[in-house]
């Protein structure tokens, strides 16, 4: 079963959008395999966003993502990585279509509400950074 890492960023948590966002992915038909409300350390933020290290906005990105609690999640289902990216909308909310999370709730590229893994490799890496194996449920065993 394909898995992806999604995270409601500090702006989404502060704006009480956790429930709205979780609801969208539940209604779509994906399963929540793990979730936690947490404040990210600078070390974890720099690791998570390591691919952007040389970008001019890296410092701002790390400051923002560590500025308040985030809601980290693992979702699973068929083609969940690409489908979740479509449901999130384009990175820059001004280009994100209506009906997507960013299209509906954000205006600014820094404060764009949600993060989602962009590839199978990123998903494995990001899930491993944020979750231990025993923090993820196995629905097959629970039935
Ligand atoms: P995210 O999907 O979390 O991955 C990297 C983040 O960098 C991205 O969402 C944006 O929030 C942020 N980002 C991308 N481009 C810019 C930019 N030009 N200025 C500030 N932040 C940016």
From TrEMBL:
EC number(s) on record?
2.7.4.6
Q: Which SUPFAM superfamilies match?
A: Nucleoside diphosphate kinase, NDK
Q: Required co-factor?
A: Mg(2+)
According to the UniProt entry, its GO molecular function terms are: nucleoside diphosphate kinase activity
Keyword set includes Ribonucleoprotein: no
Q: What class of enzyme is it?
A: transferase
Stretches of the chain forming a coiled coil according to its record:
none
- Tell me the PROSITE patterns matching this sequence: NDPK (PS00469), NDPK_LIKE (PS51374)
Reaction equations catalysed = a 2'-deoxyribonucleoside 5'-diphosphate + ATP = a 2'-deoxyribonucleoside 5'-triphosphate + ADP; a ribonucleoside 5'-diphosphate + ATP = a ribonucleoside 5'-triphosphate + ADP
The positions flagged as active site in the entry are 115
Cellular compartment(s)? Cytoplasm
Keywords for the protein's UniProt record, in alphabetical order: ATP-binding, Cytoplasm, Kinase, Magnesium, Metal-binding, Nucleotide metabolism, Nucleotide-binding, Phosphoprotein, Transferase
Q: Can you give the residue ranges of the Nucleoside diphosphate kinase-like domain?
A: 1-138
Per UniProt, ATP binds at 9, 57, 85, 91, 102, 112
In terms of Pfam families, this protein maps to:
NDK
Q: How does it assemble?
A: Homotetramer.
Role description: Major role in the synthesis of nucleoside triphosphates other than ATP. The ATP gamma phosphate is transferred to the NDP beta phosphate via a ping-pong mechanism, using a phosphorylated active-site intermediate.
Family, per the entry? Belongs to the NDK family.
Tell me what this protein is called. Nucleoside diphosphate kinase
